[in-house]
Amino acid sequence: MTRGKSKADGPKKADTKLAVKKGSERVAKKPRKSKADKDPNKPKRPPSAFFVFMEEFRKTYKEKHPNNKSVAAVGKAGGDKWKSLSEDEKAPYVAKAAKLKSDYTKTMAAYNKGQSGGGSRPPAAAAAAAAAAADDEEESDKSKSEVNDDEDDEEDEDEEDDD
User: Fold this and answer.
1) Model pLDDT for residues 73-88, shown as the tens digit of each residue
2) Measuring CA to CA, how many Å separate 8 from each of 4, 11, 14, 90, 120?
């Protein structure tokens, strides 16, 4: 008996869609970019109103529950308490968070100014330097206007000579 040709008897072609790549045939993944090193002098972001509340809540919770060692339990209780507070009760925490944020923006401005200047200084020194620079700017503005007035006078004299 003769057999008819079937697809299985035909030439074997590797199905490229189903081929599994092994070992060295695998496509190498691109190496991840390494994160830039963190500057230890950079000011930390200010806490939100909730975290300001949690600082106080943790202290009171530990006084009431001295045997509790679970951080999760403290967090859960704090979250539940925060949700139950009214807007009026949250107001002092929101106000304190807003004050901390404004302080942070000032220190960040001083920090960024110090970074563009090339030197890295601690935030306190940078803030003090920024305050001193603000005083210097007022004086330098006055002196610049005096210098500009002198230059204007000289230009006026030059123009009169040309006539």
Assistant:
1) 999 999 999 999 999 9
2) 11, 8, 13, 76, 73
